[in-house]
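Exercise 7. Predict the joint structure of the components listed below.
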Amino acid sequence: DAKTTQPTSMDCAEGRAANLPCNHSTISGNEYVYWYRQIHSQGPQYIIHGLKNNETNEMASLIITEDRKSSTLILPHATLRDTAVYYCIVVSGTYKYIFGTGTRLKVLA
Amino acid sequence: DAGVIQSPRHEVTEMGQEVTLRCKPISGHNSLFWYRQTMMRGLELLIYFNNNVPIDDSGMPEDRFSAKMPNASFSTLKIQPSEPRDSAVYFCASSLGRRAQNTEAFFGQGTRLTVV
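Solution:
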């Protein structure tokens, strides 16, 4: 499975959009990009995933570059409850979700 | 559905004792995962079951750890004997389907294990 690189931490003002980048330059054609988050030692929570096209759901939007070497998770209107560690994971046709160190997002009042 | 249910939520035990962690996956899911999380090592995949069969246990630290899935609705992770370095939060997750592509995993709330 491709390795991902994320910034260690980010801050975002409450009400503003939070844009979390992820680099996955070694991704291959059949690998999906998944995003999870973990709030204060709770179990990781699924956010969104995609293959090639941009995706949007009730929680977030996922923008994947045309070459698929990077992606951005967008939380359109961040709230204090979005403070968490965000994990970007690249998943192939295997069963393994391999978590890296993630980005610690702090939403500031 | 109540989601993935783990028990107990907290466990404190003495070194050398046997510890059993329990997991009830989401009904209908046929893949089950056990993860361990520590500050030093992050989230580590320990073992993966598909249709109740262990597919990959390469992440299990050593012979003191064992996992079983006697049926589709129940799994256990056992540590015998336990050691202080086993202290961690243990998560169980389940998903629909064998292949991770296009199928998300749902995590339980975890069991916080402290071995003194």
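Discussion. Residues 25 and 61 of chain B are 23 Å apart (CA to CA).
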